[in-house]
Fold each of these.
Amino acid sequence: MSDPNLLFWAISFAVFASVAGLTFWSGSLIAQRGAVRQRLAPAARENRDFAADQARSGPKIGGKRARVDAALGLTDATKGVQRAELLRAGYFGPNAVLAYNTIRLANVIAFPLVVYALLSTTGSDLGALGKFAVLGGSLLLAYYIPEAFIKRRQRALQEKFRLVFPDFLDLLVVCVDAGLSLDAALERVTGEVTHTSRELGVNLAMMAGETRAGRGIIDALHSLASRLGIDEARSLAMLLQQSVELGTDIAMALRTYSDEMREKRLSRAEEKANALPVKIVFPLGVFIFPVILVLIMVPMALRVVGAMAGF
């Protein structure tokens, strides 16, 4: 116990355990202040009902949930913002916010401990300051890894939504041309879209639930656009809002917009195809050209060596 290295690592472990808790707590406070400043944002407004429903789910469950939220430093505003972000990432479960914060806290504690164990068992040549820096970097990395994962998941879903959205519009045009109202057409299309994209189907089902609860179809479309996070959905909501307010033909507006979305999807595919020759230069130069060069030059080099040996 009098070994200075053992004493140093014991103190480092205690310090980093304290810093992990303080970092998570301070991050929650910063997120809370940012959420309060943006409380009028649509994402925060549309998710307040969810927190209220969870609070009314029962006194026993609600009491446990309140104690867990207090331990994690969560408020209604913070949970509303996190709920919106998780919805955009495709996590629709009622306990998604709690699970996300629990995993984040566990990651902040476990990841530095794993790094500490690796440094202790491998016998690293880093000095005390170097090890302290590595542990500090692992703590910061562990704190931001879940957020980076959610952002990456959002970008992947947005790309998927952009691919499926023109097909959704085509189905919507067919239903409107068949004589269905806009509400009925959206509900009819939801089941078909679910087979292609589960996430888009769930978002459409949520929009249908909002309209059945009494929310206007235009407000529900704006809420859908906020959850999807793509410009195509926002443009659709604005287009239908203008058509309803001005009294224009919705079927004609949808047909024109559907043609535009199909052309836009084709242009994105052509753009990716045109960028392929540039992207393939690196693997060609690193993996293929050296092999071809060896196959060509080695026989010539052997012949030259053989000829030189003959002299």
Amino acid sequence: MKTWTVGKIEITRVVEVWDWQDDIWMTLHEGTPDMVLAHDWLQPHYATPDGKQRMNFQAFVVKAGDRRIMIDTCVGADREREFHIFCNMQTSFLEDIASVGIPAESIDTVLCTHLHFDHVGWNTRLVDGQWIPTFPNARYLFERSEYDFWLKRRDAGDHHDANHLADAIDPIIAAGLVDFVPANCDLGDGISLIPTPGHTPGHVSVRFESEGEVAVITGDLMHHPIQLAMPEHAATFDLDRTAGAATRIAFVDRFRDTPTLIIGSHFADPGAGRIVGAGSATRLVS
């Protein structure tokens, strides 16, 4: 658990999978350990001595005035997923958010940056064999083109796994809790969306501004800080790799050498910092 303060807004990280170490090609298409080792600033927090990446799977709860907002909802419990490590997970996710004074029933807004399985899981929980909304008093915000894209993928039997729609998305739709929003939506209270397509078509990042301070939660426009130094490099899990690279380049150009706090949705601890430098020397400074 870690909390960042942006003016009067509090953003608390809730980690579901901590310090997952894996080969860098999971993030960078055709990436190698040497690519990681060439950036010594990544160690020890973001890389291992042998050039593997370190990352988390995490969500964020936000206090903004009287608002209580969940940004993404991780993998969730009791699921069958494409990757074994994420199957039938049992974690302290709900207890963790309650421990910072934001129990599930107090959440009024759930914003999913996109609809991959590891960002929507705790939208629901399993009770007596039924998937029910975890946050029954919240409005769930989905970007419209993102939702439509996933429906088309499922209907077409596309190779990209969409089984999570049945347990994490469909029950929210059936409960009438979804509001469809544009990718540049202003959510009020200093919180707005930034369109960051490429990883998925309707992917968004989340911008916070309060009392002159600014922060951005990236979502999956990048998974690892190395992508700040190599934004043009194709990302393995971007559905449109060309668009994803263009989005990262624009993002780095926009926020480089500014006071904006960049909070990575998959960044390992310390998890946030400011973008500084130029070209391949660009880095995250916490």
